[in-house]
Amino acid sequence: MSGIDWAILLIYFVFVLGIGVALKGAMRTSTDFFLAGRAIPAWVCGLAFISANLGAQEVIGMAASGAKYGIATSHFYWIGAIPAMIFVGLFMMPFYYGSKARSVPEYLRMRFDEKTRGLNAISFAIMTVFSSGISMYAMAKLILTLHVFDGPFRRLGIDPSWIFHVGIILSALIVLGYIFLGGLTSAIYNEVLQFFLIVAGFAPLVWLGMKNVGGWSGLKSRLDPSYVHSWVGMGSSATNRLGVEWFGLVMGLGFVLSFGYWCTDFLVVQRAMAANSMSAARRTPLIAAVPKMLFPFLVILPGLIAIALPTPPVQATQIAAGAASGASAVAGGPGEGLVPYKVNATTGAPMLDKSGKPELDYDLTIPNMLLHYFPAGMLGIGLTALLASFMSGMAGNVTAFNTVWTYDIYQSYIRPDASDAHYLRMGRMATVAGIALSIGAAYMANSFNNIMDMLQLVFAFVNAPLFATFLLGMFWKRATGHGAFFGLLSGTAAAAVHHGLTLPIGGVPGIKGGWIALVHTYPSEMAQNFWTAIFAWTTCFVVTIIISLMTKPAEESKLVGLVYSLTARPQEEHLAWYAKPATLAIVVLCITVVLNIVFW
Amino acid sequence: MWIDIRLPIGMLFSVFGIILSVFGLLGGDARYEKSLGINVNLIWGLVLLVFGIFMFVLGKSAKKAIVPDEEPEGPQADGRPRH
After folding, report:
1. For residue B43, what are the domain limits?
2. Taking a contact as any Cβ pair under 8 Å apart, which residues of chain A between 353 and 392 contact chain B?
3. Do both A406 and A520 map to the same domain?
4. Considering the entire predicted model, what is its pTM?
5. Is the Cβ pair B12, A212 closer than 8 Å?
């Protein structure tokens, strides 16, 4: 990195912390700190909603999937996000926002009972800390791979083995700084800033890349047809790159996983709860859906371009060298296009998969694209966007953690009747603790890779059935607390058992599944994930209904505002037709259908 | 004290825009070999500058628009004044 790139990065950090300092005075009550005073306009909430999800893992991961699976990766957006975002805005937000619940677990307590809330709050709190730790770890790793800090470290005479630690501590301190000062408002403002930064950093990348390969038609002519169609070949798992058939895709990804995430995950729902009115809260996910459906062009296309380009003949591994000369410089050794082979860290030889072909390190797709096309200056914007998205991913988790900890665990089980000022102080302390725990998780990820894989697996089991509980809770007044609680537990158990009985093709029993016995083999890991989710959801749905029918229903008077049939529809006669959530939803849906047809 | 988010966005992008476009004006044609010979710093710097100024002006002119209400609104209030 040259001087100008450093200047851009430093200016960004100054702004981020400056926003925290400027907002400090506005944090007078715990509502200000945890819910941004419920005073944020819809478009800001909407961009934060999308940005909280647009962590660096998303950017890097989706470009990686683009290089691996092609344009079919857009299913994660057009099937795997948009319908659920429309649903949460139109049908679920009236209960989240209208019930005045301060968190998703708190809604569960109001609708069901204490134990259902406790289960959700505790598993969610643990999950956020680990996600934020994984984000931190991934960022420090990337800084290491790209040699971002090597220059200044050499100049200061510090041993390069410190780069990883400094990367972690530095990102932790910055995130801590702005959340500690400005709470959720600060996190949301920074997420909006990061949204624009990602667009500013990646739009020219797509522009240059597309120009280079000769536009969409040029890209098509360079790639196998399986890369450039999203639906052709989805009839059978054998005829598409994802290795999933259409039913598993639509039900597993489009319904269970997507609705489970967008409709129940407090990390995103919290952004809508901060909105300044009911209609703003309902419009939040709908506004977010507009950029969400266009993101494939920003993050998947670079992956396709990277795989379509000829492999550069001379490869420098040092970001500093590349930025100084005008020549192309990418990280890693040879590979396919700009995607390098995975290299064994100790021997330096490429790692081979089971059929003896070298494996590609798809996660380096985006960093290599940035290094390939961006000169000094623009490179600073691109890398700042990447680092910003890592940090806002961490911040999103930390703000969700401090709220759930303070309201749903501390206030509920440890100290119920303290003053508001006490909870505000607790929120700040929880922010410090959440970040300290994330650092611990980051180091854990560094030393035990398998533990992280296992944890993410367990989170997937816990999350998979959630949407069944919320669906029944919001739309079936007969659903009871016992039903919800045991439905969730059995759904999680079903996910674990299904995983234990199946394997993706070529997998060995263990972390990939099959640790009980092998009953069925799926054509891909993705198909296995989707079907695990489908089994978990169905089990939770059925068990919740059966146990609810066997247990005593809650009094209807207590469910007003929490269940569809007992809640007045939100009034929106005063809104102009174009400002109504339903109008926005229809527009979003139509564009999504058109996009699917265009890239069929 | 609430700040309109468009002000910091406007300022940040204006600063980035100025830095990039000035850097782009300073020449160094060899630098732009990797970006297909396009002076991406100058072009994109100007785009960012225009965007930054646009956001800043919006934020300045609508300064009173996001002054928060005294308390969170219930489901029935929905953006209308309370009675």
Report:
1. 6-61
2. 372-378, 381
3. no
4. 0.85
5. no
